[in-house]
Amino acid sequence: MENVNPADLYRQGPPSFGHGLLKYFPLDPEYLNLNHGSFGSAPYVVHKTISDLNFKLEANPDKFLRLDYLSYLNDVRDRLAKLVGAQRDEIVLVPNASVGINTILRNLEWEKEDTIICFNTSYNSVHKTAYNLGDIPPYPTVSEIALKFPTTPQQIVDQFRAHLKSLPKPEGKKRIAIIDSIISNPGALLPWQELVKICKEEGVISVIDAAHSIGQEQKINLTAAAPDFWVSNCHKWLHAKRSVAMLYIPERNRHLIKTSHPTSHAYKPLDSRTLEDFIAQWEWNGTIDWLPFLTVGAALDFRQWIGGEAKIFDHCHNLALEGGRLMAEIFGTRVMDPNGEFTLNMVNVELPFPGSVPYSVKTNKLFMTKMLNERGAYSAHFYHNGRWWTRCSAQVYNELEDFEKLAKIWVEVCQEVKQELGLDEKKD
């Protein structure tokens, strides 16, 4: 499938979901991948698109980058806007969600006694961005909410509301909440739209880290949900070439974002900036590989061909639920979310490994080495609330037997790691 012509491919009928779709992806046939959520995987037709664009660019770099590039970029922004219920001029592209979150937070004018609200489950780099801002003048306060799964959506809503109400409200000071739409670890859907409503009630700016949402979360309508900012990766679940993310900056908040990061040649001070100037900042702010940005359309075409967003979701969601139950049975443990309230296409299952062993660099490396180097298989692993878990991503090319095979591998690996750490099973 390496040299497939998209036009020829799409004249064919779509394949069935499951292992029959593996031939459309350049994954190693010997690799058992249940960790699509971390980095994504683009199908061959997307790689063909980027290859064709690259040759076009190299044939005449000036023409492509100065003239042709923008028409491709605007088409991507238009298609993304339609997908998430926004206006095209509210969508700009950045390399990844972390860059998007940093762009927002480092544009805000911080003052002493401002408050940044984050969660213990915030993505690591985003979590550390909040604390970094708290460590530099004017030293805004970081206030952290501790989520402990298993829990319920209502408990999270109540906990969030109570936390906001408990915070001081100095006159004229800002409060900003960084909220995951879908947490990375655990892979759990948060009731983020409800949390946005609470932010509005409490006068808090909502910054939504939606890194896992596009291509997984269904029927997104940002105009209706009205977060203050929202950023999502397109290379994780949408099948674009990594790395590219969309950053939603609604018109009402455009004045808060003064510059792209890094600052573009198109920068103009706020009092003299036009909409065209604002958009231009995101069209070019230095020479990087901009081509992944232009693969979103090819990814959407592929997804439409294999069945469309709803069909993709149904396969992946149902497989995640069924696969998680099967793994828990093999492990003799439990799924984190037995009612499926937090589960979209990622399922969290407790590993057969003692929770009395806390996270360490050594243990983490043992798990990764034994899974990736020795077994050629992987699903994300993490330590949360005194337990070890694995987060399995169900994708269009996966089937239930993948979960069964991976579970048996994890049982072996957990046993080997316990032995290497010198653990006495009787004390487990």
TrEMBL record:
Q: Which Pfam family, an example, fits this chain?
A: Aminotran_5
Q: Give coiled-coil spans as residue ranges.
A: none
Q: Does the keyword Transferase apply?
A: yes
Q: Which InterPro entries match?
A: Aminotrans_V_dom (IPR000192), PyrdxlP-dep_Trfase (IPR015424), PyrdxlP-dep_Trfase_major (IPR015421), PyrdxlP-dep_Trfase_small (IPR015422)
Under SUPFAM superfamilies, the record lists:
PLP-dependent transferases
Domain Aminotransferase class V: start-end pairs:
73-351
Q: Which GO terms describe its molecular function?
A: transferase activity
Q: What is this protein called?
A: PLP-dependent transferase
Q: Which organism is it from?
A: Macrolepiota fuliginosa MF-IS2
